[in-house]
Structures are given as C-alpha cells and as structure tokens.
Design brief:
The protein is mainly beta and about 140 residues long. About 0% of the residues lie in helices and about 50% in strands.
Length: about 140
C-alpha cells in the first residue's frame, strides 16, 4: 500500500474519470467542503496537479460517480433546497440537480445500460432512469 496524497483532510467520496486519468476526492474536513481533482500519473503510482474542482459553499458533497461523458454526479446535502444529487460538467460547471426530500449520501449507476441512478439517502433508497450512462467500474 502506498500513500498517494496526505493533503486531503477527511477524504470521503472518490472516483475516477472514465479514462482513469483523473481522480476526484471529496474533502469533508474543511468548511466549505471541497471536491479536489488530481491527475493520475506514472501508471497510477502517483497523483499530480492537485486542484479544487468544486467549492461546495454551503452544500455537503458526499459519494461521487462519473458518467461516460466525464460528468461528476455527487450525492449532496445541506437542507431542503440542497438535498439530492448535483451534476457537474468535466470543467466543474454546475449542470443540473436532482432534488430529493432528504440528503443523498451515496449513489451508483446500475441496470443493463448503466442508465439507472440509485441514490442512497438518509432513510430511503431512490432510483431514476437518467439520460446518461455510468462509467465502467464506477
């Protein structure tokens, strides 16, 4: 086992981009919470070019997954107007939001076409067919 970064305080959700060239990590130990992006180099042995991908502001990002287009789907919390899933484009622009009546802690794509989003929330599990396909392995 090798430590590839020790600079993220309380790392939480993580996932790779579809080509596995980037690693995204939610940092839970700071306010506001951040989602970092790292370049994966040396055949996966090291991370480089760490940057803040998303500053969550008042939101609480949690579990994350990428779709085949490189969009980042994030379980999200923060109250009635924030709870659900937030989707960011590969450049970190807010693309959309799925509102739920409770905080979403984790999510994954499933189904034969990987186009069914499963969302694990505080007290419930939700599913929704989406116009996206989850990245293989994510």
């Amino acid at each position: 086992m090798t430590v590839v970064t020790g600079d993220v305080e309380r790392p939480n959700g993580l996932c790779f981009s579809p080509d596995e060239a980037k690693l995204y990590v939610v940092e839970s130990g700071v306010v506001p919470r951040l989602i970092h992006a790292f370049d994966v180099v040396d055949d996966g042995a090291h991370l480089a070019h760490e940057r803040v991908f998303v500053n969550a502001g008042l939101g609480i990002p949690d579990g994350i997954r990428c779709d085949t287009d490189g969009n980042l789907w994030c379980g999200w919390g923060g109250g009635e107007a924030e709870d659900g899933v937030v989707v960011f484009t590969p450049d970190g622009t807010l693309m959309g939001r799925i509102r739920l009546p409770e905080r979403c802690a984790n999510l994954c794509f499933g189904g034969l076409k990987r186009n069914r989003l499963f969302m694990a929330a505080s007290h419930s599990v939700y599913s929704l067919y989406v116009n996206a396909q989850g990245a293989v392995g994510g």
